Amino acid sequence: MTELLKAELLVTRDVFATKGVFTISRGSRTQACVLTVTLTSGEHVGVGECVPYARYGETLDSVEAQVLGLRQALRDGMDRSMLQSALPAGAARNAVDCALWDLQAKSTGTPVWSLAGLSEPTPVTTAYTLSLDTPENMQAAASENSARPVLKIKLGGTGDLERLQAVRRGAPDSTLIVDANEGWSAADYDALAPAMLDLGVALVEQPLPAGHDQALLGRKRPLPVCADEACHDRESLGQLSGKYDVVNIKLDKTGGLTEALALREAAIKAGFDVMVGCMVGSSLAMAPALLVAQGVTYVDLDGPLLLAEDRVTPMQFEVSLIHPASRKLWG
Predict the structure, then answer these.
(1) Cα separation, 266 vs 99, whole angstroms
(2) How many CB atoms lie within 10 A of CB 94?
(3) What strand order describes the sheet that includes 201-205?
(4) pLDDT of residue 22
């Protein structure tokens, strides 16, 4: 049983500028537009953040409407188990779920990791994402970040091998992760996998479009394949076996920390390696995700590193080492 909390709801929109233009195969952005959920119960305040994502049919307006639809239920008293059935997996439930965790932590004086029955979190090393660009620009970006142990490379079109070769020249010692964002075909994977292995690539995220990935079933995968857009919550797992080797858990997909922790346990039990990732968001979004990222194979929580501005109390980074959040921020 989780604590039944009666709370007043406030939803605000926050915009954080990115460091330059951030580009993936589906488009470019210069801002991270997020929704912040604030729950107030007496003198205690809990907060959570989500990033509505058009790929999943979400907009700021639609997600805000979903959250505001819970106003009376939150006033009457809602716990996290009730929330799981009140909203589907997605950004809206994520922000409310994380705010409920934070509110309970603040009202009880107990950190979220303890409430969740977890060990106290320790710092983890995150990948750092290089935006899709020309080979020359990506080599320059890789050189600038060559001290980072793991680089994640956004690909997804003609010239991908040339881009990756340029990145390797710029960062000869970093482990590389490739993210195609559904931009390849099965033939692309077959053609590129051997060369990418030679270049030291550890895995590729979502090479084929989710829902059109049957070609991966039973296919030889010399380069491990990670499900991102194809993996949302525990219900997704049954469709992934035989196609993927790794699953990427993002709280905006799972609908919050509650389901993310359950998905991590189920995925490991099913034999998948785990990556914990993020949308381009602030430190408030990374704070709960870092609890899920403890002990997993891959961590990709670099959202704040891609921003030119952040929350008042940001998470602390040492190069690519991300430290647990201050309780002033969350948890």
Answers:
(1) 24
(2) 33
(3) 128-130, 150-154, 175-179, 201-205, 225-227, 246-249, 273-276, 298-299
(4) 75
Q: 152, 154, 243, 253: which is the annotated catalytic residue?
A: 154
Catalytic residue flag (residue 250): yes
Residue 217: strand, helix, or coil = coil
Residues 6+ apart with CB under 8 A from 295: none
For residue 141, what are the contacts with CB-CB under 8 A and spacing of at least 6?
Answer: 130, 131, 133, 167, 170
pLDDT tens per residue, range 262-319: 999 999 999 999 999 999 999 999 999 999 999 999 999 999 999 999 999 999 999 9
Q: What is the pLDDT of residues 44-76, one digit of tens each?
A: 999 999 999 998 999 999 999 999 999 999 999
The single residue of 106, 152, 243, 250 carrying the catalytic annotation is 250
| Residue 154 among the catalytic residues | yes
